[in-house]
Design goal:
With 73 residues, the protein is mainly β. 14% of the residues lie in helices and 36% in strands. A three-stranded mixed sheet has the order 1-3-2, covered by helices on one side.
Length: 73
């Protein structure tokens, strides 16, 4: 693990972004969904350390299309 003092804050990121960051720091990831539909973007709305090296991410899908995710803008 690169940094054992503080877990990187990944709140608000997409699941893919958050997982890549945490894995880069050597953490294993556990996920819990509050709302899931595969047509929406999943965002991390909570995180906590379960055990040394394991981070639990709480994930929810957005209910709307986020204009910041539109590459044409």
């Amino acid at each position: 693990m690169e940094n054992t003092n503080q877990v990187p804050d990944v709140l608000g990121l997409t699941v893919e972004e958050g997982c890549l960051i945490l894995q880069k720091y050597g953490y294993r990831i556990s996920c819990s969904y509050t709302y899931y539909q595969d047509k929406y973007i999943s965002r991390i709305i909570g995180q906590r350390v379960l055990d040394k090296g394991i981070v639990d991410l709480v994930i929810s899908d957005e209910y709307y299309n986020d204009p910041s995710d539109d590459p044409s803008i």
